[in-house]
Amino acid sequence: MKTAVGDEKRFIRIITVLLAIVSILALFPMELLVVASFTDENELISKGYQVWPAKWSLEAYTYMIDQAATIVRSYLVTIGTTVVGTALSVLLTASLAYPMARKNFPFRNALSFFVYFTMLFNGGLVPQYIMWSTIFHIKDTYAALIFPNLLMTAFNIFLVRNYYTNSLPDALYEAAQLDGATEFQMFVKVVFPLSKPVVATIALFEALTYWNSWTNALYYVQDPKYFGIQNLLMRIMKNIEYLRTGTSEMAAEGQVASLPGNSIRMALAFIGLLPIVIIYPMLQKYFIKGVVVGAVKG
Questions:
Q1: Which H or E run includes 116?
Q2: How far apart are CA 78 and CA 85, in angstroms?
Q3: Is the pLDDT reported for residue 155 higher than 60?
Q4: Are 108 and 99 in contact (CB under 8 A)?
Q5: Could you tell me if 184 and 95 are in contact, meaning their C-beta atoms sit under 8 angstroms apart?
């Protein structure tokens, strides 16, 4: 018995050390990102990324302060898009998964096949662009940042459906029906409140997708006021590269030699990641439970 206990403790120590090493390796790129944002531009170009650079600089953050109004507006666009898009996605995904999980729904297999079909085939980028721009007319609107390609995914729908099937017993539905509840009332008052783990999981998936999305704005948005933080980062980088090409008057006069292009990229990337880094630990316990239970085949 003592030997078994000792082996278990030894195994736990080994696993703890290994996980600590993996965690440090996972955090190392983040450390390089933060340090690079505070590194002098010339130092960054000549010596590359360093764990502890010889010369520190606040030029990137000074430049960002000068562009504060534009950056704040882009953050508000990204935050608004993420909140609204995530809420709509969770609501629609959970609603569509509900009839697929109900055994007494006569079209559940056909609906499941239709959703599964979208995982295998799609019309392609050109037909999608034509549909959204000429039929729905979403160009240069906030809808362009929310609807195309992001609102629902088949993977999330099946994840929620499997959670309903495996975690909510049939007796729960029968008890609600005996109390006179309709299908809508069962979903709103019984099923959805009991699905907190999987709801938190798909909410995190969708929030990350919306926060990091930049392709929708690239395809459907030309007005800068609709740019999110990711698209603003691309625009700033393109502007700096243009100024450095020597084709502009500023470049000819030598006014852009010290523009902190690389460190600005790192600073914006760090600030863009910060909200997700803060929010993820709060949802981690639901995320793990939702993925484990929802991934079981129903």
A1: helix 108-120
A2: 10
A3: yes
A4: yes
A5: no
Determine the distance from the C-alpha atom of residue 24 to the mean position of all C-alpha atoms in its chain, rounded to a whole number: 23
Please report, for the chain, how many H helices and E strands are present, in that order: 15, 0
**Sequence-ordered list of residues with C-beta below 8 angstroms from that of 107, at least 6 positions apart, any chain:** 99
Are 162 and 94 within 8 A, CB to CB? no
pTM of the model: 0.78
- The beta-strand segments (E) located in the chain are none
Between helices 68-101 and 196-212, what is the axis angle to 10°?
140
- Paired tokens of 285: 């316990």
Candidates 200, 197, 72, 225; CA nearest to 141 is: 225
Number of Cβ atoms within 10 Å of the Cβ of 229: 23
Encode pLDDT of 5-52 as tens digits. 667 788 888 999 998 999 888 888 888 888 888 887 777 777 777 778
Structure tokens, 212 = 């990091």
In 3D, which of 185, 159, 190, 148 has the Cα closest to residue 97?
159
